Amino acid sequence: MSIKLLLEKANVPGIISYEVYRREGGYASVEKALRNMTPDQVTDEVKKSGLRGRGGAGFPTGLKWSFLAKPDGVPRHLVCNADESEPGTFKDRYLMEFLPHLLIEGLIVSSFALGSHHTYIYIRGEYAWIPDILEKAIAEAKENGWLGKNILGTGFDCEIYVHRGAGAYICGEETALIESLEGKRGNPRIKPPFPAIKGVWDRPTVVNNVESLAAVVPIINYGAEAYAKIGIGKSTGTKLISACGNINKPGVYEIDMTISVEDFIYSDEYCGGIAHGKKLKACIPGGSSVPILPANLLLKTAKGEKRLMNYESLADGGFATGSSMGSGGFIVLDEDQCVVKHTMTLSRFYRHESCGQCSPCREGTGWMEKILKNIEYGKGKMSDIDLLWDIQRRIEGNTICPLGDAAAWPVAAAIRHFRDEFEWHIRYPEEAQQRNFGLAHYADPLPAPQSA
Ligand SMILES: Cc1cc2nc3c(=O)[nH]c(=O)nc-3n(C[C@H](O)[C@H](O)[C@H](O)COP(=O)(O)O)c2cc1C
Ligand code: SF4
Asked: Which atom number of ligand 1 is nearest to the Cα of residue 83?
């Protein structure tokens, strides 16, 4: 039976309301932290828990908090990153929609640790119905004395504000998010200075993912030691995975990071196997930006060991034979799916979402999409494959923010592991155009290229 820390109460009827959440033991971590701990003790506890940021990069949360410039009378801010626009990722949505008080509780404890009296939730524009849920939870928390002035008579003041984004993937990147929160166009900033030194309105700021901040609640309730015992190696605690694609049971699952990828895909508790009895072809295990892995490398590492659903194991072998946990968006492809078409669709997304500040990303994403479109529509040349490889290599590491890398990695991995599929499209263009690889049900919004 799996361990549940975040979704433990998810199925309790009415848990979205303050009364039920509180009756089920909600807000106990606020009482514990504010009454019995100092802000530094809370930060130490998060450090000891080994919690790694759940937004994608997996950076240790407690360590990030300790980088924040010390209080010197200047306001400091905590910002909750609820932009969640990475294709395949929808775990934060689940938390906010069904357990809003868990996030608010985590935000209050984290704000206390960081000395943030004005804390923000930046939420993607497309989650149009969720700000109302969060604002209701904030109002209920305030009515019951968990927010506002002098919380629990401890002298700590805190307000939480919900800020709606306009709907841009780039606004999930922390410095673009900060720009957007300040009312400007969401263009990433050049770092340094990092947000811990100069963030929102030039004040020291910590940006953390929704799941990272919700995880602070069980860390404080059960203690860092107990939290760190769950999981394996540097993958402590539990992780939310949003599973989608050609599986029997898409959904959001909380996993103990000792489970194997194979068990996660095939067990009835999680994905329930590949839909329609088909074979597993490949998987993108951590959201659209991370490298795709063919079935053989997904289930076992290059060393022949069972691959596990955790940070170290998913990354084993580097990008040559491994991938990444990323944001936990687990996208499964069955044997009928076309990797070329899939990569083309992702490239179109990154081209559209590039903010355009740096040339390698602005020009490269559009160029890659064009070439992939040609190959997919039977107008490609063999030299296009090497050209694609060359373009992605020149984007990676040469841009202001990691969106450039995020656009390059899926192309690199698709060529690395499925080069024969690209060659097939080029050798047999007519068949490539006719064969739909099971994607006939997609209305393709891309016009076929007019010339080679
Ligand atoms: C293009 C791009 C989009 C991102 N989108 C998100 C997002 O939607 N949510 C998120 O938490 N982090 C996102 N990130 C990562 C953030 O920049 C940042 O690392 C994260 O919010 C830190 O939180 P964590 O330490 O709790 O993971 C994105 C990064 C990039 C480059
Ligand atoms: S990498 Fe792309 S998205 Fe990031 S700053 Fe440069 S142009 Fe903008």
From this structure: 8
DSSP state for residue 290 in the 8-state scheme: S
Q: Give the tokens for residue 231.
A: 């999981």
- Average pLDDT by consecutive 10-residue portion of the chain (452 residues)? 89 97 98 96 97 96 91 88 96 98 98 97 97 98 97 96 96 97 97 95 97 98 97 96 97 96 97 96 96 96 95 95 96 94 95 96 96 92 97 95 96 96 91 59 46 44
Show the CA angle centred on residue 193, arms to residues 189 and 196, nearest 5°.
105
Nearest-Å Rg of the Cα atoms of the chain is 22
Length of the chain: 452
Q: What is the dihedral of CA 155, 120, 326, 333, to 10 degrees?
A: 130
**Residue nearest (by alpha carbon) to ligand 1 atom 8:** 84
Question: 408 with 393: CB under 8 angstroms?
Answer: yes
Burial tier of 150 (Cβ tally within 10 Å: 0-12, 13-18, 19+): exposed
- In angstroms, the CA 403 to CA 170 distance is 7
Give the distance (Å) from ligand 2 centre to CA of residue 386.
24
- Give the Å distance between the CA of 92 and the centre of ligand 1: 12
Contact 103, 213 (CB under 8 A): yes
Alpha carbon 160 to chain centroid, angstroms: 22
Domains of the chain: 18-229 (3.40.50.11540), 232-334 (3.10.20.600), 339-434 (1.20.1440.230)
> How many Å lie between the centroid of ligand 1 and the Cα of residue 56?
6
With vertex at residue 51, the alpha carbon angle to CA 157 and CA 318, rounded to the nearest 5 degrees, is 140
Spatial separation of the C-alpha atoms in residues 199 and 210, rounded to whole Å: 18
Helix (H), strand (E) at residue 390 = helix 382-395
**Strand 156-164 versus strand 118-123 pairing type:** parallel
**Going by CA atoms, what residue is nearest to atom 6 of ligand 2?**
358
Instruction: Give me the amino acid identity at 335.
Output: E
pLDDT digits (tens, 9 = 90+) for 137-154: 999 999 999 999 999 999
Q: How far is the CA of 257 from the centre of ligand 1 (A)?
A: 21
pLDDT at 74: 83
Q: Which ligand is nearest to the CA of 87?
A: 1
402 lines ligand 1 (CB under 6 A): yes
Tokens of 14: 């009415």
Q: Is the CB of 334 under 6 A from ligand 1?
A: no
Is the beta carbon of 378 within 6 A of some atom in ligand 1? no
Ligand nearest to the CA of 194: 1
